[in-house]
Amino acid sequence: MSSEILSFRNIENKIVYNPTIPFKHNGKEYISVRTESFDSELDSEICFAYRHSNHWMIDNSLPTFQLQDPALTTVKDNTLLSGVYVKKTRDGSLKLKTDFYLGPDISRLKKIASGPWGMKDIRIVEMDECIGVFTRPQKREYGKGKIGYLEICSLDELKGMSETDWYSAKILEGLFNKDEWGGVNQVVKLSEDKLGIIGHTAHQTGDDGELRKHYYAMSFVFNISTKTYSDYRIIAQRSDFPPSPSKRSPELDDILFPGGIDTSGYLYCGLSDYCVGRRKIKNPFEIL
Description:
CATH topology: Tachylectin-2, Chain A
Number of helices: 2
CATH architecture: 5 Propeller
């Protein structure tokens, strides 16, 4: 199937990657992306770009957020944006958390809550009776990152959740072996009982020499009632897309970070932590 790298304009010498899927705002088609300098991850911003002919233009009239890796969903007819906040500590190391912003549309978003320090790739989905939350605990018994699931009654609960609450999520065991990690990138409501998950799975090689990370797009179906999953599969890898430079070569050459799949069947991805690509794929939620 065909794939392509998307072109962005008005980016002021920044690199653009790790997108959401396109969405409508004020009659235009937009996409949210992560932008940053080639040689840094401390000036990252989430920006919004609109389609203009055969490329995308960063819209400087819209707000930006000092976050990484945007995710967008709708809850109670409001737009919910989540992204990863990264902070440099006194010893020079980096710490991160997920921040949540809510508003009537992308031009009027206000911060409402944060996840615990050390947790990214938190994804939220509105359901009939509650709100589902997919978590990504790591370290301790969770290794480099597993997927958890919990439910809350409303977004207001996010504000008062303790670290213990976040780590009480039910872990989806068996998705990754001890040398792998991964997380949820997009949640699609398939029915009253089932959610379609687009996520990533990863491992690394060259631990004793030249480090290389390997990220793949995967999917599975999550049963809300039983809290179990089925139909796990790898749906895309970096070699499915055209070649490009890498933010750090060879470490990030084989990175594919999915943003999600749109209603036309296009999978949108960040490529090599450097650019954005899309690829038409088959329905990943068909029963195997």
